[in-house]
């Protein structure tokens, strides 16, 4: 089993781990040929090309401009994220306090987010992650915020999920 050294992620497939590590490192090897969009995952690039770049050239040029604008906004929002008590929704540019419950509400209610289908009730305001479960989205947002509320009483280990702490306790203590 492969385990990430920066967070609680683990997988049995080395390809999944390589893809996951790219998110921490910021490595985005998949680049759009029509605009400045870059992605850590080939599936995200494919979805981008299918939704943003279509056959109508006038519409296509507008989409390229919008894509570049959102790339700039996303870069700025990442910088602000580390130096602020707020996060900025990448879809509607709403400034949200770093409160899990408020961010979760916005993940569900943002009308500008790109939902793959209506089963995905929650779309992350900071990346392309989506889920139909508030429970799963809560854990995902904790990773962005760096919150690890479940702390080991015997060592410095902490986790975003109580199940990971329980596993840690069984294995290490």
TrEMBL record:
Keywords noted in UniProt: DNA-binding, Membrane, Metal-binding, Nucleus, Repeat, Transcription, Transcription regulation, Transmembrane, Transmembrane helix, Zinc, Zinc-finger
Domain named C2H2-type: residues: 2-29, 30-58, 122-149, 150-173
Domain of life per record: Eukaryota
Gene3D superfamilies in the record: Classic Zinc Finger
The protein, known as: Zinc finger protein 64 homolog, isoforms 3 and 4-like
Species of the source: Diaphorina citri (Asian citrus psyllid)
Gene giving rise to this polypeptide: LOC113469888
Gene Ontology MF, one: RNA polymerase II cis-regulatory region sequence-specific DNA binding
Any Gene Ontology CC annotation: nucleus
């Amino acid at each position: 089993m492969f385990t990430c050294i920066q967070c609680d992620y683990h997988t049995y497939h080395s390809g999944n781990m390589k893809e996951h590590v790219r998110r921490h490192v910021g490595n985005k090897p998949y680049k759009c040929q029509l605009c400045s969009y870059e992605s850590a995952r080939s599936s995200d690039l494919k979805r981008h090309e299918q939704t943003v770049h279509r056959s109508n050239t006038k519409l296509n040029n507008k989409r390229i401009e919008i894509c570049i604008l959102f790339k700039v906004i996303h870069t700025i929002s990442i910088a602000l994220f580390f130096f602020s008590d707020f996060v900025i929704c990448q879809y509607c540019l709403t400034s949200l306090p770093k409160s899990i419950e408020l961010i979760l509400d916005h993940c569900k209610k943002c009308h500008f987010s790109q939902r793959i289908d209506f089963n995905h009730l929650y779309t992350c305001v900071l990346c392309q992650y989506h889920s139909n479960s508030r429970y799963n989205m809560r854990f995902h947002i904790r990773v962005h915020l760096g919150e690890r509320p479940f702390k080991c009483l015997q060592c410095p280990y902490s986790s975003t999920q109580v199940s990971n702490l329980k596993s840690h306790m069984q294995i290490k203590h």
